[in-house]
Amino acid sequence: MSNLCVTGAGTMGRGIAYVAALGGYNVRLHDVSTDNLQNAEKLIRSTMNQSADKGFIDRHKADRALERVTYTTNLEDAVNNTKIVIEAVFELMELKIDVFKQLDRLCDPSTILATNTSTMSPTEIAASTSRPDKCIAMHFFNPVHKMKLIEIVRGLETSDDTVQKVKAVAEKLGKETVEVNEFPGFVTSRMNCLIGNEAMTMLMEGVASARDIDKAMKLGLNHPMGPLELADLVGLDTRLRNMEYLNKTLGEKYRPCPLLIKYVKAGRLGRKSGAGFYDYNDDK
Predict the structure, then answer these.
(1) Are residues 132 and 157 in contact, defined by beta-carbon separation less than 8 angstroms?
(2) What sequence ranges are listed for the domain 3-hydroxyacyl-CoA dehydrogenase C-terminal (predicted)?
(3) What is the C-alpha separation between 128 and 126, in angstroms, rounded?
(4) Gyration radius of the chain's alpha carbons
């Protein structure tokens, strides 16, 4: 597996492409939007150069990694002679299924198709293909280049061989893995969404300020980030989609906080929009 394709050049896709290139893969990063690809290339280069300047990675290794990434809007070219494709599009089931149908048609029958999803069913996504045994979920975490974990989630028909090959890919990317039996939200998203939703509810009720809620979780429970900071980093629109899916599949305790819904309607999506539970406009 020397070639690896990532489809979807947003926050997660470009992060996966970054670590894959550092891990020695020839990476094809695909997106339907030229603007998304140009932005991804700019940010990958910036992050790689900053890491080299700070001594986190060797400059020669960084330069070689950048040379291994190609950017394309042509999905057929992106998946050619590639043994694993990682899908990193929005958390919308209809979109993921559509992408997997395209990948199934274009890829060699031996190619593994992995979805980077934090909540959704790899079984349902795999059912749209002719290779459910070669479909799996690889849940990466944001920011990908800093977070060590990948949740490996089996679908109903995922083969042991697929699991072992994907674990080997994760190891080459410098990540550790946990193997999860499919259930909505897996391990981390179920816990994280509950904690974040309760933090939003406390903020809405006036229990404490956003900063004090986050500070309490960091200093009192030793969380590296507060739940509201983390929601802003992930994106409040993404968090809302996750909550809506978990509410639908797991029940009332995952009903999204009304404050989250209000912020998304107002366009306060977190860091990417300049404001969420915190204001980031001064950071620009």
Answers:
(1) yes
(2) 185-280
(3) 5
(4) 19
